[in-house]
Design goal:
Blueprint (H helix, E strand, L loop, with lengths): L3 E7 L4 E2 L6 H14 L6 H21 L3 E9 L2 E13 L5 H16 L3 E8 L2 E15 L10 E13 L10 E9 L5 H14 L1 E4 L11 E6 L9
Helix pairs in contact: 1-2
Length: 231
Amino acid sequence: MSAVQVSFEISPIFQRITSGLDPERARAEVTARIHAQGTAVPDELIDEITAEYQKVSTVLADTGVLYSGSCFGQFDGDWSMGSLTIGVQPLSYRDPEVAIAGMTKILAAEHGQHAEVSAITLPCGQATLVIRQSPDLRLPAEFSDSGEDLPIDVAQLQAFIPVPPRSVPGAQTLVTVTFSTPSTDHWADYCELLVPLLNSIRFRPAPEADLGAPAPEAAPSVAGGPATAFG
């Protein structure tokens, strides 16, 4: 398998997530970022953001993904948050188009009516796109008025992209972009940021490939500015 370098342009609203944080350190980072914006945030919202941030930080330490970032700020005065992950894994395929057709069919059957699954064409190649909303995240009972755990709807976008041989000969690599947010009312605003990100993704052989090191790399760059107000 040839090593793949993944490059992309990302909105400056995203900040890279530190991997392997415990809850105390995760809360400290979240609090510092919020205070840097000069706005008061309720403790219960900080708890919610911290839980999501620490969960992603733990996954990073366990899986070694290429990139993960988070954002929290305001859309028109309403607090909002989200997390973005870009990962890679081996995938055996001869033709990316056949791989996409198979993944689209399998994921559509797996998610049923709970997701929109489609095959799309990006500048970097073909992809399977999955958009779904599910109550995977729960607000602990101590923070709810009812005294019971409450489900929180989480909207998620995933793009599964087999690296085309025209970009990296011999590549057998699946790149997965995942964005999740419990701020479902701001989904359209986030889509304005995600579409340019997906269109900016490019693949090329990693420099280490000639030296026999198969590990992929990420080469993100900050885009000129967010596509919508977020501050």
